[in-house]
Structure formats: C-alpha cells, structure tokens
Amino acid sequence: MNIKRVPYTSPAWWAWVILIALTFGMPLLQPMFAHVFPELERPIYTQDSFLQLLLAHVFIVALSSVMSIGLGVALGVVVTQRFGRDFKPLVEAVVAMGQTFPPVAVLAIVVPLVGFGVVPALIALSLYGLLPIVQSTIAGLDDVPTSSVDAGIGLGMSPVQLFRQVQWPLAMPVILSGIRTSVIINIGTAAVASTVGAKTLGSPIIIGLNGNNMAYVVQGALLVALLAVVVDLSFDALQKRT
Q1: 56-240: what CATH class?
Q2: Is 179 in contact with 173 (CB distance < 8 Å)?
Q3: Rounded to 5 degrees, what angle do the CA atoms 154, 157, 163 make?
Q4: Which of 4, 93, 96, 191 would you call most buried, defined as having the most Cβ atoms within 10 angstroms of its Cβ?
Q5: Where are the alpha helices (DSSP H) in the chain?
Q6: What are the sequence ranges of the domains in the chain?
Q7: CB–CB of 172/83 below 8 Å?
Q8: Contact, 126 vs 70, CB < 8 A?
C-alpha cells in the first residue's frame, strides 16, 4: 500500500516554517531580547532587514557552492580516469592544504588583490568548500563495483556511455553527501564574509561583537544555524529520493 506523506509531518517543512517566521518576525521579539539583555539600549538589529541579510547570505553560499561543485567534481572525475590517475595524490594534497587555511586568512590574502565586498568572500568560500566534494567524487567513482563496469563493457558501451550510464549514477549518492557537507560548511563560514564588507547574516554577529551587543550576536547566529538545519534536512530529503 502506497502511503502518501503529508508535507507538514516533515522536519524539513517545519524547519523552513521556523526560519521564515524568525526572519520576518525577529523585530517582534524585541520585548523578549530587552528582558534578557536589559543593559542594551537597542536589543534588536535594525541596520538591515533580516530578509535582506538572509537573501544575501543564501546568494553568496549558493554561488560559491556552484563554483566548488563545478571545480571539485571536475577534478574528482579527471583523477579517477585512466589518463588522470597520476595526478590524484597531487590534487588530494592541494585541496587538503586549502582546507587547512582559516577562512579569515584566505580573506586577508585575497582582499588586497580584489578589494572588499562579495568577490573575496566568493573566492574564499569556493576554495574552502572544495575538499569534501573532491573526496566524495573520488570515493564514489572508485567504489563503483568492478562487476558493474565489466557488465557495461560486456554490453559494448563506449567509455562515455559507461561513465554516464553506470559509473555516474552509482557514484551520485556519495557525491551528493560531499556536496551536502560542503554547502553546510559554507553556510557557517559565510558569516565571516561580513568582515570584508559583504552583507550576510554574519553582519549582526560582527557588529554585535564589536559593540558588545550580545543580542545582535544571538539573532545572527540563530538564523545562520537555522539556515544550516533547513539546508541539511532538505539534502536529507533529496538523498532519500535518489
């Protein structure tokens, strides 16, 4: 018997509802923040709307993730093919080295070259999100059963057909796991982009830390965490369908 699932029973659905409600309704929580932080004259962040900050944060994460996915998957595919296997240790070492650089250090290096704003944030985030995608692409393609590849060859498939119809579909769940990890990392790391002039949900956090306003910090951190939960649950739902 095929049971149709009601949308509002999904955790992802409720996470989306809470994120949207807090994004639009945060100013309504001013009495609560004023009660928790009575020493603050301005307990609610008002320099930008939380909707603007959320959309800007999502834009930076989405664009940097697309860049990471494009480069990371391409590198993973190349080094798992016969002509590129010699470069596999080099690629793994380079992307692992990139992950060890703190995002703030990457921004400090990039800003003098391209200036302040969104561009240095995109460069830093796209580099920082490479490692999980490259590793999962390599693992997914390397773990394709030899029997499946042999069966495709036995059916007379060309190398391109073998990749598209056998290797790629079987590796997709593992690759998707790496993309999921990379995007979640980028959601948290994107908050740092506000230190170089990019508007993100990190703006209340940075201004709150500079002005000793913990209410701002809580508001920004809460929305960043909720966005990460929403995206993670959405990926979980997507992976269950693949």
Answers
A1: mainly alpha
A2: no
A3: 115
A4: 191
A5: 11-25, 30-36, 50-80, 88-100, 103-114, 118-128, 130-142, 146-154, 159-162, 168-189, 202-210, 214-241
A6: 56-240
A7: no
A8: no
